Amino acid sequence: MKALNLIVHAVMVLFLTIISQLGGIAWLAARFLPKHRFSGFLAFYVVLSAGAVFIAPMTGRVPLACIASESDAATSPFFCALNRQYVTPDLKAVLTDLSKDMQTAHPDTQIRVLDAGFPFLSGFPLLPHLSHDDGKKADIALFYRNARGAYLPGRTRSPIGYFAFEQGPTECESRPMSLRWDLDALQPIWADWTLDESRTRHALELLSSDPRIDRLFLEPHLKDRMDITSSKVRFQGCRAARHDDHIHIQVR
After folding, report:
1. Are residues 192 and 213 in the same domain?
2. Domain check: are 52 and 152 in the same one?
3. 129 and 115 in contact (C-beta within 8 Å)?
4. Based on the domain organization, do 138 and 13 belong to the same domain?
5. Is residue 139 helix, strand or coil?
6. Domain check: are 115 and 156 in the same one?
7. How many Å apart are CA 59 and CA 50, to the nearest integer?
8. Residues 197, 44: Cα–Cα separation, whole Å
9. What angle do CA 18, 128, 113 make, to 5 degrees?
C-alpha cells in the first residue's frame, strides 16, 4: 500500500506541475497536513499563485489581466487559475497596443488571450504547446459574430477558446504521433458562430506590421482567406497543433 500511495502522489505531483507549474509544490506541501490535505493543497496553491504575481516580474515575466476589459488584453480566469497568463514585458506591451489599436478601428473589441506562459523558468514547457516556454509567446482567440451578424466581445466558440476549428483545405495528412488533432466529433457541439473576418484581418495586419513581432502562426487557408501576405504569418507545420482556432504570437 505504501508503494501504491507513493505512486499516486508522484502522479499527482507530475500532473499538477505539468498543468500549472506550481501545483505540484502545493500538493507536496499539503502532505504535512494529513488531516486537511485537500484544503491544505488549495490554501498552499492560492498562496503560491498569488505570490507568483509579485515575484515573477523580478525574473522577467509579468501577468496579464484575468478579467476582460475594453482597454486591455486579458486572458480568462481558467488560464489564470492554472498560472498560464505570464509573458515578457515586451509581449504584454504588444498585446496592450493591439487592444488599443483594435478599439480605435473596431470599438468594443476585446482581445482574448488564451495560453501564454508560466511564471518561472525559461525552458519549462507549457504543454501541450511546443514553444510556450520563455514568456515570448501567447495565443489569442479569433473574433466571432453570431447568427444575426453581431460581434461577440471576448467570446469564443468553445469554452476555453481552443479546438473549435475554422474548416479549410490542408495538405497535412493524419498522423498518429502528432499534436495536430482534428477532433471531428467535437466540432458539431461548438457554438454555430461565424468568423469576424474584418476584425481578424485587422488584428493580423496590426501584428504583422509591428517590429516587435518575430512571427505569427496561422493555418494557410486562413491566411489566404484573410488575404494576408506578410512573411511573418507562417504555417506551424503538420506536427504541431492546428492554428485555425487561434493566432499564435511570438515576439523577438
Report:
1. yes
2. no
3. yes
4. no
5. strand
6. yes
7. 15
8. 44
9. 100
CA diameter of the chain: 63
Regions of the chain where pLDDT drops below 70 = 70
How far, in Å, CA of 134 to CA of 198, rounded?
31
Q: How many residues does the chain have?
A: 252
Rounded Cα distance, 177 and 103, in Å: 41
The pLDDT of residue 70 is 66
Q: Which helix (H) or strand (E) holds 135?
A: none
Question: Do 79 and 3 lie in a common domain?
Answer: no
pLDDT number for residue 174 = 81
Rounded Cα distance, 117 and 136, in Å:
8
Could you list the beta-strand ranges (E) of the chain. 62-63, 86-87, 137-141, 144-145, 194-195, 213-217, 233-234, 246-251
Question: How many alpha carbons lie under 13 Å from residue 103 in its C-beta half-sphere?
Answer: 13
Place of cell 488584428: 203
Which amino acid, residue 156? T
**Amino acid at the residue 24:** G
Residues 202 and 244 in one domain: yes
Short-list 180, 166, 162, CA closest to 222:
166
The one-letter amino acid at 73: A
Single-letter code of the amino acid located at 203: A
pLDDT per residue over 119-159, tens digit each? 999 999 999 998 999 999 999 999 999 999 999 999 999 99
Q: What is the pTM of this model?
A: 0.94
> Tens of pLDDT along 4-35?
888 989 999 999 999 999 999 999 999 888 88
Q: Same domain, yes or no, for 54 and 135?
A: no
